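Course assignment 3, question 2. Fill in each field.
Student: A.L.
Task: Predict the tertiary structure for the chain below.
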Amino acid sequence: MSGGFSKILNITGELKDKIDKIDKYVKFYTDVSKTSEIPSVAYMNWGIQLAQEGQIDEALDKFRTATLMANQHPGAYVNLGIAQIKQRNFEEAIKNFRKAVKLDKFNSKAYAMWASALSEIGDLKGAVDIYKLAQKYDPRDPDIYLNWGISLAKANKKKEAEEKFQKAIALNPVNPITPFLWGIILLEQQRYDEAINKFSHSLTYSDEKYDALYYLAFCYLKMHDFKLAEEYAQKAKDLNPNKVDPYIVLAECYLNTGKSDLCLKIFEDADANAQTNAQFYTNWGIALQKYNDVDNAREKLYKALLIDPNNELILFQLGVNFLMGNEFTQAEEFFSRVIELNPKNTQALFNLATLRFNKMDYDKALELYQASFASERKNYHIYFNIANCYCKKNDIENAKRYYKKCIEYCPKHLQAYINYSNLLIETGEEQDALRKIRSAYMLDKDSAYVNFSYGVILLRLGKYKDAKEKFEQAVNIDSKYDIAYLGLAEALFCLNEIEEVFDVLEVVSSQFKNSYEFLSIQEKFLNSVVDDPNVSQYLLKYAYEYCNKFLELYNNDIVLKIKDLLQEKINLN
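Answer field:
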């Protein structure tokens, strides 16, 4: 929810005007004001009517006239002060409330509004003292507790505000404003069940039901009860199709329930019918990104940015958008702007760090990852990526430390176990390396990648037979997992099963083509045959035929040269 409690008070102030509106006409007050017995009251009521219609300047004029009458009425000063509060002229309002209590020291309404004006200028202590006077003179006036609660809520004293709202409801349970404002406080604290109770209470007694319906929809959305969220949002939209907020809730419901067509349609309907805002275009852009429509998402996000150029969420989502489009320079620019606005934005720091890591700027990546710890000390992704940075910097001990921390916070992080295992081999901790890779294997025995990784560790430890078994498992799980064939070829070579090596290489030669790793292994195996003084004639011919098959598909000077050497050796034998 954006705008906070103060914004809601503006909304509900308008709502209260409509609820309290008296059906009288300006002509009536014109006539009454000519009656000498009650001119002050007439002008005062005329001003009230004008204020309720939003004509604050005209209302002020009538209230001032009322205060100048010979038979002054304290209510005229009170209403003049209320009108000045609406114009945010709090100092003048306070002066008039003081005048009202001079005329009537027991006027609880004047005290209550005086206290409200004091809270608006930040004098909460003074406001509380005046509220206590209002309470003293009329302890059963619910409006005193309502205004007192509003002042406390604005000062972020939510618990005390709730106590006052509770008292106001006890004295007047049919006023829809009090439970509504209490619901806002509960909503800001993410106490959605309790907020729903209060908004439902407000809905029961309110003639203007839009706000309560919308916030009920919003609460249910936050609770992931998409059915009820949709129901209340639809009712709110039907009541006021020009308001964009219910459309946003409906779109979120459809997005979360896999109804992509309805989601996009509701955004289009809102764009055509409602008063759109930055949040609307932001949500539309996010939805399009989730549907991988990067270009249209970017258009919506830029529209949002035009409306609100320093909005952290919009800038972040544009960074994500450019990241999705592999436009890394622009992505970095937007994430950097987010950090300028909020140096503690963990996800922006993380994304910037990853971009720097990909640029091989490991020192800067480390700095940014470390900065992202400020609010997320238990984020295992950060520990994992810091460990990767240290790996690239060849700082093995620090890398091990951070992989260990990653596993502590995420015991099922496969890649952390695999990377940690490889580092342990580097430092000669072979048994620990085996334990870590076994942990990964136990987490996902049916993964071709995990079996391959296990095979690599075993290969590095000289356990060739076991390595062969794991590579074979990998290719049995996924026959297109080509890299596992190279591992298998390596294991077979170490077991001196050279003929099988060439069979395996032949299987994957078309997939790898000219890859450096494949060609290096191929060259290594062919040269081993050439260099072996005890090689059999059969194996020489087998390697020679392999060269022919490979050269039929690809031109390769190294293989051609090895073929000639094999031919010479065959002729010599």
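Instructor remarks: The longest helix spans residues 4-20. Residues 153 and 159 are 8 Å apart (CA to CA).
Grade: pending
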